[in-house]
Amino acid sequence: MNLTLGKYLRFKRKLLAYNQSNKRHLYPILEQRALVETAIYCEEYLQNAQYLTKRNDIFDYAASLLSNTIQISYVVEFGVWKGESINYLAKRISNSQIYGFDTFYGLPENWAGTHTPKGYFSVNGVQPKVEDNVHLTTGLFDEVTEKTLRRSKIPYLSLIHIDCDLYSSTKQALESVGQYIYKDVLIIFDEFFGYPNWKNGEFKAFTEFSKNNSLNFEFLAFSTRQVLIKIL
Ligand SMILES: C[S@@+](CC[C@H](N)C(=O)[O-])C[C@H]1O[C@@H](n2cnc3c(N)ncnc32)[C@H](O)[C@@H]1O
Hints:
By secondary structure, this protein is of the alpha/beta class. It contains seven helices and eight strands, in the order H-H-E-H-E-H-E-E-H-E-H-E-H-E-E. The chain has a single domain (about 30-230), classed as Rossmann fold (3-Layer(aba) Sandwich). Helix content is about 40%, strand content about 15%. It has an eight-stranded mixed sheet, with helices on both faces. It is globular. The structure holds S-adenosylmethionine.
């Protein structure tokens, strides 16, 4: 490369300015710190859990556990958005019926600690196209879930996928399926940890819920933000 001294000096000045301006941003530091805290948290449980590198690996692992049984797998998903994860699960888990819940108007409040504002993920109330074994209900979790599961005569749940980001929504989600959370039920959280303020999000809602209901559980797998939990 033919780099003149002038060009080199201009490049160095730009690089310096870029580094200086980035130093003024807190977010990279908060993210780094969140990752370190997450790693420390995970380390304690790694003896019995797998570390998987991608979100779909977590889905595949759960699917492999469920597909070993001859029973129908009843699955619920809280937070459907454009249907990517629900359709993935519907294809991967054989013999499954999957119930998805969403307002389809995005997050009901700002996601504290991140850049994501209220209304983010809105698809203007329009449900996505889904696989034949997926059944969608529009509405807030605490208003529609119990009614839908009762009306559909769901006898038990095999897997609960929680992907609604907020503490308040996760709390609603867990409480709305509380009666179905017992031994052997699998729960996947999509944003359990690994980002700034994670201790006040899905993590906090599950910690409180498991304490209040005296639930024992184990981590089967971790990824950067996701966890697969089994109720004991
Ligand atoms: C991250 S998106 C879901 C992404 C989806 N699981 C995927 O991977 O393709 C989160 C969704 O949760 C929904 N949501 C959040 N809180 C909710 C609540 N309390 N009741 C209903 N829907 C909610 C939002 O509308 C949004 O579509």
